[in-house]
Specification:
GO molecular function (chains A, B): histidinol dehydrogenase activity
Pathway (chains A, B): Amino-acid biosynthesis; L-histidine biosynthesis; L-histidine from 5-phospho-alpha-D-ribose 1-diphosphate: step 9/9
Distance between the termini of chain A: 84 Å
Active site (chains A, B): 331-332
Binding site for NAD(+) (chains A, B): 134, 195, 218
Largest sheet of chain A: 6 strands, parallel
CATH superfamily of the largest domain in chain A: Nitrogenase molybdenum iron protein domain
Number of helices of chain A: 17
Oligomer: homodimer
CATH architecture of the largest domain in chain A: 3-Layer(aba) Sandwich
Catalytic activity (chains A, B): L-histidinol + 2 NAD(+) + H2O = L-histidine + 2 NADH + 3 H(+)
Shape of chain A: globular
Radius of gyration of chain A: 25 Å
Number of strands of chain A: 15
Strand order of the largest sheet of chain A: 1-12-11-10-13-14
CATH class of the largest domain in chain A: Alpha Beta
Chain lengths: 433, 433
C-alpha cells in the first residue's frame, strides 16, 4: 500500500518534528483577492441594490432583471418543504428538533445580586436584533448548515434572521429552502460572494443591515467577513475540516476507517488522523481504508487528503494520546474505547468529542443535536462551537444605593487620582461628600 | 457659551441626519502602518527574543542588555504592592475583591443530559491554557486595566497569565505591578508594541506563545492584534470611549455634567452625549459643564471631545430616548431617573447600564465589580463586556448507546446522501445495520 497515509510512531526519534509538520497549515492571504473584495464592499456601500444585482447577474449568471427577483417568499420556502420526499422531510424534521432541543439547553439567562453594601449588580442578556446567515451555493449548498446556523439564532430570540444563498444560473437546492423554512429564517436573498456579505454588513435599499454574519463560504466570502468584522460581528473563519480518531480495545476497523474517510472526503486539504496504541488495529484500519476507497464516489478527494494531510499514529499508551490530542485541539475527536468518558475528562481542547463505538462523527454533522460549526486548525484552544451564546450578548447592570455607593465612590476617587483622571475622581466624590 | 457642545432636538426637521452624523466614526486603516506591523511580526517569528530586545531598546529606549532583563520577578511585583501607600493599597484591594466577586458569578459550568433515545449529550467547559494581557505603558498605564483583564482570566482558571507592559526608558508604574501581583498574573515582560503582540502570538525562546491576547493598546498594538487573530484569539478592538447619560426628574446638574466630562477627559475623540426631555435641565447641565471645565486639569482634551463629538439632545419623552439609546448601543449608559430599572428593561443594546443618581460611571471603571472593558462604537449590538466567558471555551459532548444511535444513524444516512457525502452516510449506516 505504501504511500496511502503517513505512519508515525511516538517511539521515532523524529516524531516531535514530524507531528508538528503534520499539523502545520498556514492560509496565505492573497493581496489581489483582498483588493478585489475591498472594491466590491466599497461599491456595494455606494451603489447598494444595483451593484449587488449586477454582480449576481455577472458571477452567478442569475436571470434576475431587478433586485426584487432576488428575494424568495415564505410561500416558496414552505412549498419547498412540502415538496420533499417523506423520508427526507422526516429526517430533516428530526434533525431540526434535536438541534433545537440541544441549543435550548445553551440559552443563558441574566442574573442580579445585591452586594453587602446594598448595591445591585448583574448581567442582562439580550438577543441580537438581526443576523445574516451565509449559505454557499452549488455543490456545497448543505441543508445541514442552514439548520446549524439558523436554529441557534432562532432559539436565542433573534428577531430577524436573513439568509443569503447564491443561486448559480438561478438554480437552488430545494432542501436548503426547506431547511430555512423549518429553522425559522425570516427572509432569503439569492445572492452570494463578497457582495452578499457587504449587503448584509452595511445594508442596501432592500437588504437590511445585520448585526452579525455567520456561516461558511469560499475565500471571497471569508475575506469579506474578515473585512467587515467590527462593523458587524462574525463567527470564526473556518479552516479545513479535521477528525482525530483514537481507538483502543475491541473495535471494528471498518467502522473506524470509514469515520476517518468521512472527513477526508470533504476536501483535499481536510485532515484525518488515527491514533492508537494497538499496532495490529493500526494495520487493520489502514487496510480497511484502502478497501473502502475502492467503493467511495469521492475516493479521489479522500485519497489526496489522507496522502497529504492524514496520518496513522502509534502511541505507547493512552496518556501519550491525550497529550497529542491536547496539542492538536481537533475540531472533531472520536474516543473509541470503553473508558471514553473517563478519557474525555482529560481532554482540554476539542470542538466536539464523540464517545464510544456507537458515536460516529457523521451523526454530529446532521442530527445528534450539538452544532456542527466547530473551531478548526487548533482554534479549539480558545474558541467554541457555534451556539446560542453567539446570538446573545450581555450588558452589565449596576445600581448603587445612596448609602452603598459611599465606599465605592471613595475607592474610585483614590484610584482615579492615581490615574490622573480628575473628572472621574470628582464625579465619584460628588456621591460620597 | 455658543460652541461648547452641539445641541439637537428630536423636534428638528434635520434631527435624524444630524444624529446619524454624530454617531458616524470610521477608523481608517493605514496601509503603511499595516505593512510596518506585518514586518515586525515576520521578524519576531524569525528572530525571536533577539528582535524583540532590539525593538524594545530602539522604540522604548529600554536599558536592557539581554532578553532576561525584560522579565520581572514575582518578588518585584510583590514589593511594588507592599510599597504602596496605605490608602492606595486598600483601594486596590477593595477593587480587586469586588471585581473578583462579580466575575465569579459569571463562571460557567458544563452540563449533560440523556435524551429520550438514551444518548448522552452535553457541553464541557474548560479554561484557556495560557493568555497574554497587553497593558499600555507611559501615561495610559492604568492599574485598573490590569485588574479588569487579569481577574476574569484568573477566575476562569487560566493556568498561565502572561502580562506585557512597555517600560519607556526602563520606567514602570509601580501601581501596575502591584495590580498584577493582586490579580494573580504569572509572568510579566516589559515589552510592548507590535513586537510584544507577535511574541505572545507565536512565542519566542523566552516568551511562551499564548492562546488569546486581550487588553488595550495604541494603533500598532491594535493592528498587530488584528493581524494575529486566528493564530490566537483576541478581544474586540476598542474604539474611543463613550458615555450616554439620560436624566429626568430630580437630578443634580453638576453631578450629571461631571459624569459627561469623565468620558470626555479620556480622549479628544471620546463621545459624551446627554439626553433629557427636560429643557431646563439641559440648560443647567450645559452651564455646569462650562463651569467644571474651568477647574479641570484635562479641560483641553475634554473641551475638544465635547465640541467635536459631544451632544446635548432634547427628546419629547422617555420612549424617544429609549429608541435613540438602542440606536446608539452606547458603551456606558447612565439612566438617572427614579424608574431606572423599569427603563433598563427596554434597553436592548449597551455595554454597561448605570442606574439611578448614585451610580456614576466612574465607579464602574474601578471598583463596582463588572468589567470596564466594554464594546464601543455601537458594537454592543453584537458583543459583550470582557468576562470570564472570554477565558473559557466549550466542547460538545456526544455519546450514543448501541440502541440510541439507530434512529440518529438512519437520519444521518438519509441526509448525508442528499448532500452527496457517501462516506458520511456509510459511517452512519454501520451503526444501525
Amino acid at each position: 500500500m505504501g504511500k496511502l497515509m503517513r505512519r508515525l510512531s511516538t517511539q521515532d526519534q523524529s516524531f516531535k518534528q514530524a507531528f508538528a509538520d503534520l499539523l502545520a497549515f498556514e492560509t496565505v492571504s492573497d493581496p489581489e483577492l483582498l483588493k478585489t473584495v475591498d472594491q466590491i464592499i466599497a461599491d456595494v456601500r455606494q451603489h447598494g441594490d444595483a451593484h449587488v444585482l449586477k454582480l449576481t447577474q455577472q458571477f452567478d449568471r442569475h436571470p434576475a432583471h431587478q433586485f426584487s427577483d432576488l428575494e424568495l417568499t415564505q410561500e416558496q420556502l414552505k412549498s419547498a418543504f412540502e415538496g420533499l420526499d417523506n423520508d427526507v422531510r422526516e429526517a430533516l424534521e428530526l434533525a431540526e428538533n434535536r438541534i433545537r432541543e440541544f441549543h435550548q439547553a445553551q440559552k443563558q439567562d441574566g442574573w442580579t445580586y445585591v452586594d453587602a453594601l446594598g448595591n445591585t449588580l448583574g448581567q442582562k442578556i439580550t438577543p441580537l436584533d438581526r443576523v445574516g446567515i451565509y449559505v454557499p451555493g452549488g455543490l456545497a449548498s448543505y441543508p445541514s448548515s442552514v439548520l446549524m446556523n439558523a436554529v441557534p439564532a432562532h432559539v436565542a430570540g433573534v428577531a430577524e434572521i436573513i439568509m443569503v444563498v447564491p443561486a448559480p444560473n438561478g438554480e437552488l437546492n430545494p432542501l436548503v429552502l426547506a431547511a430555512a423554512y423549518l429553522a425559522g429564517v425570516h427572509r432569503v436573498f439569492t445572492i452570494g460572494g463578497a457582495q452578499a456579505v457587504a449587503a448584509l454588513a452595511y445594508g442596501t435599499e432592500t437588504v437590511p443591515g445585520v448585526d452579525k454574519i455567520t456561516g461558511p463560504g469560499n475565500r471571497f466570502v471569508a475575506a469579506a467577513k474578515r473585512a467587515v468584522f467590527g462593523q458587524v460581528g462574525i463567527d470564526m473563519i473556518a479552516g479545513p475540516s479535521e477528525i482525530l480518531v483514537y481507538a483502543e480495545g475491541e473495535n471494528n476497523a471498518k467502522w473506524l476507517a470509514m469515520d476517518v474517510l468521512s472527513q477526508a472526503e470533504h476536501d483535499t486539504v481536510a485532515q484525518a488522523v488515527f491514533i492508537t496504541p494497538d499496532e495490529q488495529l493500526l494495520n487493520e484500519v489502514e487496510q480497511a481504508i484502502e478497501e473502502h476507497l475502492a467503493a467511495l464516489p469521492k475516493a479521489e478527494i479522500a485519497r489526496t487528503s489522507i496522502a497529504n494531510r492524514g496520518a496513522l499514529v502509534l502511541v505507547k499508551d493512552r496518556q501519550e494520546a491525550i497529550d497529542l490530542i491536547n496539542q492538536v485541539a481537533p475540531e472533531h475527536l472520536e474516543l473509541c474505547l470503553d473508558e471514553a468518558q473517563e478519557m474525555s475528562e482529560q481532554i482540554r481542547h476539542a470542538g466536539a468529542i464523540f464517545m464510544g463505538r456507537y458515536t460516529p462523527e457523521a451523526i454530529g454533522d446532521y442530527c445528534a443535536g450539538p452544532n456542527h460549526v466547530l473551531p478548526t486548525s487548533g482554534t479549539a484552544r480558545f474558541s467554541s462551537p457555534l451556539g446560542v451564546y453567539d446570538f446573545q450578548k450581555r450588558s452589565s447592570l449596576i445600581m448603587c444605593s445612596q448609602e452603598g455607593v459611599k465606599t465605592l465612590a471613595k475607592t474610585a476617587d483614590v484610584l482615579a487620582q492615581q490615574e490622573n483622571l480628575d473628572a472621574h475622581a470628582r464625579s465619584a466624590r460628588y456621591r460620597y461628600q
